What we know:
homodimer; mainly alpha; Arc Repressor Mutant, subunit A; Tetracycline Repressor, domain 2; 9 helices; elongated; DNA-binding (chains A, B); TetR/AcrR family transcriptional regulator (chains A, B); DNA-bd_HTH_TetR-type_CS (chains A, B); HTH_TetR (chains A, B)
Amino acid sequence: xxxxxxxxxxxxxxxxxxxxxxxxxxxxxxxxxxxxxxxxxxxxxxxxxxxxxxxxxxxxxxxxxxxxxxxxxxxxxxxxxxxxxxxxxxxxxxxxxxxxxxxxxxxxxxxxxxxxxxxxxxxxxxxxxxxxxxxxxxxxxxxxxxxxxxxxxxxxxxxxxxxxxxxxxxxxxxxxxxxxxxxxxxxxxxxxxxxxxxxxxxxxx
Amino acid sequence: xxxxxxxxxxxxxxxxxxxxxxxxxxxxxxxxxxxxxxxxxxxxxxxxxxxxxxxxxxxxxxxxxxxxxxxxxxxxxxxxxxxxxxxxxxxxxxxxxxxxxxxxxxxxxxxxxxxxxxxxxxxxxxxxxxxxxxxxxxxxxxxxxxxxxxxxxxxxxxxxxxxxxxxxxxxxxxxxxxxxxxxxxxxxxxxxxxxxxxxxxxxxx
Lengths: 205, 205
């Protein structure tokens, strides 16, 4: 008798997420998830009508956490300085420090995992991912536009793609750190983005 | 009667590569590859003992092409200038132009696809990917070390991770362009890497 259905549900989702990050959605069976979560098939289908439905709920949970993480880190950075350039630099630095403090290898990104198998998912799922990525673009771009008004910058830099570059650095360094088994790659690459922003916008002496 | 076994082999490999890029290795069945390549099951197993063996040969072929692409582009860049900074800037610009000239959406990176399902592959396969990524690090780093001797630069920049940044930009922008369905993202991000290198090493006036 299970008195805590929410915890069974969470157990299944956590096991599925970790299995999918190792084997991909197409390489993950319901049986493998059940075994990893240590629950019965009945319990699984009580919570999820199908593997596809589990996949949808997983990416929605991931996107919600991602948004929360983005917004909270932005609020934190904005609380630490009044200057928009400093806010953005602190924002990047906070992610850098967070990744540096991880003791386990970074588990990977569920968005990238799904995108590598995009034909297995319907448009609703791909839209959830797209909206998450566009939110990063929007938030960083807002900050860059405020910075642009206050600071001179080196050359005609395209702000939208400069905003995208943060997500690009995250996703690309996840791939490299996965292959080379070096967690520090992620922090190092964020440091380069930080440095690039400084070089672009630093005040002329 | 098939008089051209090499072409059947290539047909199978091309069909498999494209299917894997859309559905992942775990989501790709031998039947799907056979259907896509329009060959018989007998022909498939004449050429490949198993799906795993096909997976190994595919990534080896991909790595060989990747290395050839890297080395040829480097030789081309070195032929266009004697200055190491200009050579590296041209090297990046050549990739940017190549991607800009693509008419179809970029199909994705087989390395990243495999890494997203790393538990489905043995160490030999993951080593092929790792060696390819390390070759990019080595080649770009050699160039950066030559540049460092000749140019002053802004601050203590870590050259190894700066070399890695090219691969990071490639892989990260593949993910973003896949999600947002914007091919131009890859060229835009390469342009930022190009710009960052210029800001780091440009001669002081």
